[in-house]
Design brief:
It is a single chain. The protein is α/β, with parallel strands linked by helices. Helix content is about 25%, strand content about 25%. It contains eleven helices and 15 strands. The protein has helices spanning about 40-45, 95, 145, 155-165, 180-190, 205-210, 225-230, 245-255, 280-285, 300-305, 325-335; strands at about 1-10, 10-15, 30-35, 60-70, 80-85, 125-130, 135, 170-175, 195-200, 215-220, 235-240, 255-265, 285-290, 320, 340-345. The strands form three sheets. Strands 3, 4, 5, 6, 7, 14 and 15 form a seven-stranded mixed sheet that branches. The protein has a six-stranded parallel sheet with strand order 10-9-8-11-12-13, with helices on both faces. A two-stranded antiparallel ribbon has the order 1-2. Helix 11 (about 325-335) links the parallel strand 14 (about 320) and strand 15. The structure holds zinc ion (2 copies).
Length: about 350
């Protein structure tokens, strides 16, 4: 089958690899119908995430089930499904407490040997282990483009907004208007804020953020913390959602909130450590949360919100390309010429 593989740093190729087959009784074999390129794939591309050469890339995907293992209960051949970007067992201590992202038996798709040795979704087929706790059926009438992001970036954005504790009438700053930030602009509005600001430096992203309901703040033109302070009569915003992971963005997220406010960080940290401003946090009664998304807990309700027309995540897709065009798609995404690219096998 055709698949996008890691060859070397900065070198992803599309090539022929063996078609995967069921290994365990809880596996399903999925014929991929759509894959998406994610910022996390760029971490691999740039060599920031360790991976073995030959590994198949891709952790955001939808597909149609071709084969099910004998222990799979929730799915049948022919079901059209969306996958979480990681697997969860569903019965360990933390899964039972609803923290699937902390499952002891978790693996991440498209991240090679060091992250559970799972296949990737930027391919024609992929095997999904622990399928009962990793997949959700896509509602009838919903397109793959509408559904695909619940498996990663829409759940992440919603998780960020929920943990920001937004209340009706609040002001919210979303730091970074990349794919997750744009979806955070959408997700934040479900909680009834008075205003949502989107901070970025790329015009095209800020324009889209505005279309999606945010007030754009171009950090290349104004100092975002000063701008937000002025816009909130000197107080600072009530909540910030950090969607970048760069230390400068975390600092902005921290500095732009008022006393008693909440900072919710979902961007993948660019460094393993950061000097926590404990005095500022104490003096200002701040709440700081950071974490990667507990996707499995959000997929079903988010699919319901999309089905009801209350979220339109597909609006962030800027490019639709063929799987065969993946090397060019990566070049474009890396150069920030594209907001979000989906690939069709
Ligand atoms: Zn992703
Ligand atoms: Zn578990």
């Amino acid at each position: 089958m055709r698949a996008v593989t890691f060859r070397d740093v900065g070198d992803f190729q599309i090539e022929d690899v063996p078609k995967p087959s069921l290994q365990a009784a809880s596996d399903v074999l999925l014929k991929v119908t759509l894959g998406a390129i994610c910022g996390s794939d760029l971490h691999i591309y740039h060599g920031h995430t360790p991976i073995n050469p030959g590994a198949v890339i891709g952790h955001e995907f939808t597909g149609v089930i071709e084969e099910v293992g004998p222990e799979v209960r929730r799915f049948r051949a022919g079901d059209r499904v969306v996958a979480s970007f990681f697997t969860a067992c569903g019965h360990c201590y933390l899964c039972r407490r609803g923290w699937f992202a902390q499952c002891v038996d978790k693996g991440t798709f498209g991240h090679g040997e060091y992250f559970g040795n799972l296949g990737g979704g930027q391919a024609e087929w992929v095997v999904v282990p622990l399928a009962d706790h990793t997949l959700e059926v896509i509602p009838e009438g919903m397109s793959d483009e509408q559904a695909i992001f619940v498996g990663d970036i829409l759940s992440t954005a919603y998780f960020g907004a929920e943990r920001a504790e937004i209340r009706p009438g609040d002001t919210v700053a979303v730091i970074g208007a990349g794919p997750v930030g744009l979806l955070a602009v959408m997700a934040a509005q479900l909680f009834g804020p008075a205003r949502v600001y989107a901070v970025d430096m790329i015009d095209a992203r800020l324009e889209l953020a505005q279309e999606l309901g945010a007030i754009p703040v171009n950090a290349a033109e104004v100092h975002p913390v000063e701008f937000l302070e002025k816009a909130t009569h000197g107080h600072g915003v009530d909540r910030s959602i950090e969607c970048v992971g760069l230390i400068s963005a975390v600092d902005t997220a921290f500095e732009c909130v008022r006393g008693g406010g909440t900072i919710s960080m979902v961007g993948v940290p660019s460094k393993t450590e950061w000097q926590f401003p404990i005095m500022q946090a104490w003096m200002k009664d701040l709440t700081f949360r950071a974490g990667w998304c507990n996707v499995q807990a959000y997929m079903r309700p988010l699919l319901d919100l999309v089905a009801a027309g209350r979220l339109q995540p597909e609006r962030i897709i800027s490019h639709r390309m063929r799987l065969e065009e993946a090397p060019e798609a990566y070049r474009m995404f890396d150069a920030r010429e594209a907001t979000k690219i989906v690939l069709t096998p």
